[in-house]
What we know:
- The radius of gyration is 18 Å and the shape is globular.
- It has one domain.
- The protein is 69% helix and 2% strand.
- Helix 7 packs parallel to helix 9 and helix 8 runs antiparallel to helix 9.
- The chain has a two-stranded antiparallel sheet with strand order 1-2.
- It is an all-alpha fold.
- The longest helix is centred in the first third of the chain and has 24 residues.
Amino acid sequence: MTALDRFWQQAAGPGATRLENRFNLGWAALAGLGALALVLLRGPQRPAWAVALAVLLAVDVAGGVSVNASPAARAWWHRPGQGPRQLLLFTAAHVHPFVVAAAFGGDPRAAATLYLGNLVAVGLVAAAPRPLQRALALVLAGLLLALVTAVAPPVPGLEWFAPLLVLKLVAAHAPADWPVTGGAGRGGRIGQSMPARR
């Protein structure tokens, strides 16, 4: 197994299926191309290193949304032994807002709001009862994005950055799964898995 294989298994989960891998890698590549087009077409002309950085950020952040929301990654990151501490360490490692502020002239207040807001939101989600975590994550993600937008406008060409980072960390990564059988009107009960569809 190569170092790249080990890295991918740690990120996407060792049980990731071929379908998951194809979708996640395809979406990350598409996001990188989209970021390349936006940074070239919007805002001031930027040096090659800044364009490359924008593409790398898009691959990591946008790709992380789908990876963290996929079944294999969710099972891996929320396996026994993983808890609030691990979630907060993962979130704290994402210093991307400060990188964007320094490299692209973003507002430092917006960067600090986004970074600290992600930490607070993830901590609140991790502390919430499992049946409420996904709903709370979506509520906090919306509130945090509204707050960041109110603090300062996004960097031209990187309007995608804050929404996708919040989706990756708060909405996709933080909440643990809470399986439900059936649904309203079907006698569904919380805490049991749905039967597989054929």
